[in-house]
Amino acid sequence: ITKNHKITFLGHYFDEKDAAMAYNEKAIELFGEYACMNKV
């Protein structure tokens, strides 16, 4: 995930749902109400 040209590595996931949830959590942390969320 990227904000202000800074890339944050979220890890490697075997399960697509786990990866989507990790992305969503970080997106909320970085972008708050403006985060683009995955449908999980």
Automatic annotation (TrEMBL):
GO terms for molecular function: DNA binding; DNA-binding transcription factor activity. This is AP2/ERF domain-containing protein. Gene3D superfamilies: AP2/ERF domain. It comes from marine sediment metagenome.
